[in-house]
Design goal:
Blueprint: H1 2-24, E1 30-37, H2 44-54, H3 59-70, E2 77-80, E3 83-86, E4 92-96, E5 103-109, E6 112-116, E7 122-127, E8 133-142, E9 149-155, E10 167-170, E11 177-178, E12 182-185, E13 192-193, E14 197-199, H4 205-212, E15 224-228, E16 233-237
Parallel strand pairs: 1-13, 1-14, 5-10
Antiparallel strand pairs: 1-4, 2-3, 2-10, 5-8, 6-7, 8-9, 9-12, 11-14, 15-16
Helix pairs in contact: 1-4
Length: 241
Amino acid sequence: MARMKNNILLFLIIVTGFGAIPNALYATQLLTFFFKPYPAELSHHKTDKKLASLAKPGKLNREMIKLLVQKKVAGIFSTYYGFLAISDLHGQTTFPLMHAKPLLYIAISQKISPITMAYNTIDHWEFVEGSPVALYSVEKKQDPGTKINYWKVSAAQQKNNIVPLDSVTILAHPKYFYVPEGISIIKDISQTVLPPIYVKPGVHITHDALYILNLIHFFSWVPHWFKQEPKRVTIYTNTGY
């Protein structure tokens, strides 16, 4: 059963990765951030017990593999401006940068639902009633004296069930994530790199990935066909009609 779940997750990673390639090619600027393991403290009793168990033959190798698996920073799904992305083995998630405002939001919720206004047009997304939500504002500012740019992260109030347009939405239970509030210096690089987000033990990556199967068709890219004509190239788009 565990092997089947891992195969499903691997399939989702591959499908999502290929699906994101055509969209990403059109972007000149990127929005990216990293998931990192939440620091954990071990009691002396647990540490001594673990060291004693490592003395058994083959136990050390199994524990090293277990540690790699427990670093659950890969396979976490997020959405942003109609794009769906998944964190890689290093915990990095990348989107094409779609807005120029200095303010955006980070939302964390297991379930979101599309609200349509036409045959196949999504007006906006909403958080599902009863599903816990954590919302943070991330604002880019500059110190007037030093001219140093920095992020200011603050907890934000959820005014309604609507997912903010200028938001990165992490599709997971918010109790397994820690978003540090306060100020962090922005590195002088060409891409927009948000402050790191920490993942606590117990996050259900496989369960969350299975939920994405209900939404993945809303994020599929629009295919194009090219036809060479005498004096031009005509582009045909499949809109689903």
